[in-house]
Structures are given as structure tokens and as C-alpha cells.
Amino acid sequence: MRQPDALSGQPGADAAFAHELSVKSGSPLPLGATVGAEGVNFALFSRHATRVELLLYDSPDDRYPSHSITLDPVANRTGEIWHIWVGGLRTGQCYAYRADGPYRPYDGLRFNRWRVLADPYATAFSGVSAWDFDRARAYDYGSPVKDLSFSTEDNGPYAAKAMAVAGDFDWTGDRPPAQPWSRTVIYETHVRGLTIHPSARVEHRGTYRGVIEKIPYFKDLGVTAIEFLPVQEFNENETRKVNPLNGVLLRNYWGYNPVAFFAPKETYASSGRGAQVTEFKEMVRALHAADLEVILDVVFNHTAEGDESGPTLSLRGLENQVYYLLSEDRRHYRNFSGCGNTLNCNHPVVRELILDCLRHWVIEMHVDGFRFDLAAILGRDELGNITANAPLLERIAEDPILRSVKLIAEAWDAGGAYLVGSFPGLRWSEWNGQYRDDVRRFWRGDPGMAGALASRLCGSADIYQHSGRAPLNSINFITCHDGFTLRDLVSYADKHNEANGESNRDGSPANYGGNYGVEGDTDDPWINAVRLRQAKNMIATLMISRGVPMLLGGDEFGRTQGGNNNAYCQDNEVSWYDWSLIERNRELLRFTRRLIAFRFEHSGLREERFYGHDEVLWFNARGSYPDWSNADRSLACLIRDIVGAGGELYFMANAEEHEVEFHLPAAPDGGSWRVAVDTAQRAPNDIPEVAARALAGGPNLRLGARSLVVLERASG
């Protein structure tokens, strides 16, 4: 196919379906590409564009459009929305835009007519993973005031294409599970990494359909919600960094660099281009049928366009000064994300983009909740200041469509904001980073952490209660994608990120992990026994704490990243789930499964309110009230019957390197204590079946070094 004259506004003469097309002025709403019975309506926001072209492609593989239609600034513009209806098009139609206008970086305007641009509202793309970012990148234009933002090389032949997709799908009575927070156990995972390893033994490895094949595993484990790392379209091949250990090109594995907010990742589909929307919906439908919720990790704090030297892919070329937070000189970008740019989230246009996107994922894709990456940015104003009542956060929390979905904030950002416990709005739950650090430090044996552990076990009232929040506002976690896995947390004292190509400078140095004598893997049976016990201690603490537990996928069977605590670029066996570890670590898997079940057996652990003063009694190992100011590494508490069902528990934690004898209080109502959990024991005695739980006896009980015991009351 020949190339149309650049910017001519005339379609290619040899377009196969040119005679079938008809054009009308179209409608300004909804934004994006809306497929109808007889054609497609296109609508795009740009305030300062002087010329907008709609490019139509016969195929995603085409380097040049078959049609290039110039929109009339009078007939095809309403306010600041450019729009056109094109008859004869149908679902699957590939398209893109060019926008011309002023190039004045000092005013924040960066139009470039040589750039093919992605529709910010596109719901599907083809070819993002092959998009040549370098050809869309800036270089030194040689102006008197140097600015790395303008290139006259046409990137059109190398750009990805959006796809107009109809919303038709047979949901066959799909209903959201609508799990209350009190019955929620979150499993954080990665769509590709979950099943791409050959050991996954699934037909559709690394895909949405691969997730479906693992549903029986999720059900057997007992989790209730699957939280996916970003599935919003991104380019895994954008990086040019190389692993210095083997010379292999690194890839964007995690996906925290979005190209398009509305579009599910194309390469996570198993059946070719354009199937990603259908297969994502199939995955959600199947998870819902198994009573599992779907939570998406969404990135609305920045985009893959980076700073002024980055590629022009979409927002920068459409209305740069609206979409991004700019510095005072307007040529540069404020960078609260650590990724080069920051979305101008509280500008009315950007607010509507984000709200429209969230509604799309709920209405069209049936998603049950969202975890917002670097969510503190969503509360920054146009100068970058944190605001007390950020309009966007309030709109998300109060939006009628979003009222029933789960909202989770990563309540900090790379600009220094840390809002854990003070994130605006009672509807928001938060990743409780303080929980992670305090539990890790207690079990590592840091002195003086008993008081902090007590607070975390009780739902972090010290963090949340003062502002009217409840335990459900705390997402409790020991590990997450960002940091060590649980196995690495008990196997490494330091991070080992050399394979990331940044000389081990990346990743947090504050891991609070321990190796117990050897850094990394070892055959020493004593060290491995300590590591297993420590892993059990932290899983048990997580499941016994009030709040909402989140488990990092693979932790339950000892997944390792070899000490890498920032595996964002490791799309390989460093990050992939090696399911053969289940055989090697079946004891840990059984323990995790039984602890999740134990949590559901004891409703008092899951209450959506803080404990009353008479519901939890604290003790030291001697049976006296703890001196919270001392350096004790042991702690005990009596959790009284809350629901009148004989649910009393006695929790004891010993983080010392030696045995500690604990005094036992008398069991209430003349009952006896029986051992429900003892991490010093090997399976099955670490968490025996109910019928096999032995009486504790006593009045004293010796806890092994670095171990945890939970007693439950046995009647009469």
C-alpha cells in the first residue's frame, strides 16, 4: 500500500474499502471510539490543536494509513472536543491521530505534527509491545534555548494502533462477589508471571486464560480476591538496559509505565490481536463464578512519555500543559512519580479522564476494586502541593458507579508524601507500610518492638482510629511485589539487584530481613528450619491481625527472586512462579492454607472495628502487664470471646533466639487451652486439625526460639 501524502487530509486512493466510507460531523461525547451499527464515532480532547487528523488503518501491521481524514475545526469541533463519525467501519477498526499546533515549550505546549498519537480513551491497542519508542523520542533540536522535545522524524510507520472495540460480551448473569472487607483475603499476583513458567502446567501460559486455569488453586488456598499488577497497556520492550551478568536485554515486567489507561494488555491474550478485551472479560467472569473478586493495580500518577526528553506518544502531543504537572519554567516536568513526569490529576479534564476510566473498568469489564499506585499524587494540586480535600479523591470515593468497589491507596509517592493513616476520605483503605516494617522488625529480633507488634495485631488503631477510620482501612502485608519475597526476607540480609543493571543502587535498603547465618540458599538444616519457622511466624501474624490481609503470590510455597528486591525488569525465572517449589515447600503451603481457614473460623479476628479495652488483655511472658518501654522480644495477649461462640484465643510470640517460658492465664468459663498453632513444630503439628489439637496443660508453656503459639479455648 502506498503512503498517503503527509498531512494532506486525503485518503489513500487504493484503500480497499474507500467506497464504503461516509463521514458526518459526529458527536463530542463519549470520548474515544464508539462502535455503532453503521459506523464509528471518534471524539478527542485538544484545547490548543490547530489541526487534527484521524488516521485509519486496514490492519495493525500497516505502516501507513489507508485513510487520513482532516477534521474541520468548525464542523468537527464542539468546544475543545474534536469529533467525527465515519460510516462503514466496524469493531476492530485500527486508528490513530496526528495533532498540529503551537510548539512553545516555555508555555507548556509541545505539539508535533510528525508524531502519530494514541487516543487516551482507546479501549484496545495492537502493537504497543513493538512500538519503537526511540523514534518517538526527542533529541536536541538545536534551538537557541536547547530543548530535548522536538523531532522531525515521522514515527508513523513504527507506532502502535488503537482499535475500536464494541462492548458486546455475554456475561451470562455475572454478578460481583461483593465480599465484605471482613471476609477479604487478597492475593497479589502478575498475570504473566503466574503461569508463564513451564512448571505451571497450564495450556495458556502467561495469559488471562492461564489465570482461569489456576482458579482451583486459589479456591483451595482460601483467598477471596486476586489483585493483579498493572494490566493497563504498556510496552514491555521500552527499556534498553542490559543485564550485566549475562548480557540479556531487560524488559518492563511489572508494567508500571502505562501507555493507555482504558486498554487491557494485548500480550496477555492467548488468541492473537484484538482478543485481549474478550479474554480479560472471560477471566473476570470465571473468577466471579468462583466467588473471587478482581482488583486491578492502576497507575494514574504518570505515563510512559517520561520527561521532556521522552517519547511523544499521546497526552504530550495532544495537550501537554493540561495533562502534566509542569515546573515553573513550563519546559520541564514535576516528577513526584520518580518516572519523569506527573499527571495533573486534579485538573478537571484529567479528573474526568480518570473517572471515566475507572467507570469503564467497572461497567464494561466488571472489575471489583482498584489499588492506586503512588496514590498520594492523586491528592496534589496543579502546583504539586498536597491538598486537604483533593477533588479527584473525593469524586472517586463518592461516585455513584464506584460506590460499591474496593478502593486501596498506596498512600505515598516519590516526592516525599507519606499519607498512611491520613489519606483523605474514609472510603479508602491503605497499604499499611508501617505494618510491614514493624512485623518484620519484631520477628527479626529488633529490641523494643513488642508495643508496635501489639498495635499492628489490633488493626493499627494508633494510625487509623484518630481520624475515624477502622481496621478495614488497613491493608496488612508482610511482602508485596515491591521488595523481597517472603522466602528472600528470611534468607537475605541485603538486597542483590545486580542483574537490574544499576550496580545494586536501586531498590529500598530498608528491608529488615535476616539470613540467619548464610546469605542466600544453603543446605544447612538448622538455618533452613529457622527460616521456615520465621516464614510461618509472619504468615500467622498476618492472618491473626485485624485489618485486611494481603499475601504476595508465591510466598505460600517459597517463591524466591534470589535476593532481588526490585525485580521490575526481570521478565524471566527471577520473577516467574516456579510451581515445582510446591513439592519442596508443601509444609509452608499447608500452613498458609490452614491459617487462612483459621482466620475464617474465628470471626473475632475479622471484625471491622477496633477491639474494646476489655476485649484484649496484654501480658509479658511472666503473665504480668508488659513494660512497653523495655527491650522485650516476647509478647502475649488474651483475645476474649467477642461473639459469644467460645472464641477466646491466647496469642504468644517469642522472637528471642532461645526458648522462653510463658505463664498461661486460666481459660475462661472453666475451659481448657488447646494448641491451635505452634510454629516450632513441624507439620502437621504446626497447625493440627481441630480433632488433633492437644491440650496445653500448664500453668506454663515453653515456646521454642523464634516461634509463635496460638491457643484456643476448649470447652469444659
Describe the structure.
This protein has 716 residues and is an alpha/beta fold. It folds into three domains: 147 residues, Sandwich (Immunoglobulin-like); 424 residues, TIM Barrel, CATH 3.20.20; 105 residues, Sandwich (Immunoglobulin-like). It is 19% helix and 17% strand. It contains 15 helices and 27 strands. It has an eight-stranded parallel barrel with strand order 13-14-15-16-17-18-19-20. A hairpin with a 4-residue loop joins strand 9 and strand 10. It is elongated and about 85 Å long. The N terminus is likely disordered.
Give the secondary structure arrangement, pairings included.
Layout (H helix, E strand, L loop, with lengths): L21 E3 L7 E4 L3 E7 L5 E7 L9 E4 L6 E2 L2 E7 L5 E8 L2 E2 L4 E2 L14 E2 L6 H4 L24 E4 L21 E4 L1 H5 L12 H6 L1 H7 L3 E4 L47 H14 L3 E6 L16 H9 L24 H16 L5 E4 L18 H8 L7 E4 L19 E3 L1 H12 L5 H8 L3 H4 L9 E4 L8 H4 L35 H20 L3 E5 L28 H4 L1 H16 L14 E4 L14 E6 L9 E6 L5 E4 L8 E7 L21 E4 L3 E8 L2
Parallel strand pairs: 13-14, 13-20, 14-15, 15-16, 16-17, 17-18, 18-19, 19-20
Antiparallel strand pairs: 1-7, 2-3, 3-7, 4-5, 4-8, 6-7, 8-12, 9-10, 11-12, 21-22, 22-23, 23-27, 24-26, 25-27
Helix pairs in contact: 9-10, 9-13, 13-15
